[in-house]
Specification:
Elements (H helix, E strand, L loop, with lengths): L1 H7 L6 E4 L8 E4 L8 H11 L12
Antiparallel strand pairs: 1-2
């Protein structure tokens, strides 16, 4: 569980998640701290963690 938390959290990749405020956009921005996980690995893990969107088909008799 701890490894999953590290791989999901952008802080460990040296990024800061900022919410949008008024005219300023939100998003992920580079922080001034040293990353524990390199950006390439973090991006790769984020792609793997995405769940495919499936459509549900309801069959009604």
């Amino acid at each position: 569980m701890a490894i999953e938390r590290v791989l999901k959290n952008p802080i460990y990749a040296g990024l800061l998640k900022v919410d949008a405020h008024k005219d300023y956009p939100g998003g992920l921005f580079n922080g001034i701290h040293e990353p524990i996980v390199d950006r390439t690995t973090w991006d790769f893990v984020q792609e793997k963690l995405k769940r495919p969107t499936t459509t549900r088909t309801v069959i009604d008799e």
